Amino acid sequence: MTRNDTLRRVLGTGATWGSLWLAFWVLVGTAIGIANPESIDPGEPLGMVVIFGAMGLMSGLILGGLRSTFSGSAPSMLRTAGLGILATALVQVAFLGHGDQGLLANLQMAGAFSLIGGLVTIVWQVLGRVGSQRRPSLGHS
Known about the structure:
Elements: H1 3-35, H2 44-70, H3 77-92, H4 103-134
Helix pairs in contact: 1-2, 1-4, 2-3, 3-4
């Protein structure tokens, strides 16, 4: 695989994984908004998209880099989920100092986000496998 192919794969992973991550959090935010609309302040939806979008893109790019470094051609679901957890955890380090909840609360949230990152990675891998099965092989009519 050439360097351009690797870069394209990492960027594709980042964009796709980040989109799945953001879609998950938009659904969560929408559910909260429906169940308890008073808990959503003006401007929070846009802030959520910006923060979770950046978080997802960074996690996806790190996942793409980790996969290109540590995985073979057909990595197992467990290994890929583990790489997704690791990628998300690495990104969470940048967000540990936010808010006024304290470091312990932020570490707990980072742990939960990292586990969700593993779940998003499983969905990403399943979608990739389904997509590759639907694509016709090159050279066949």
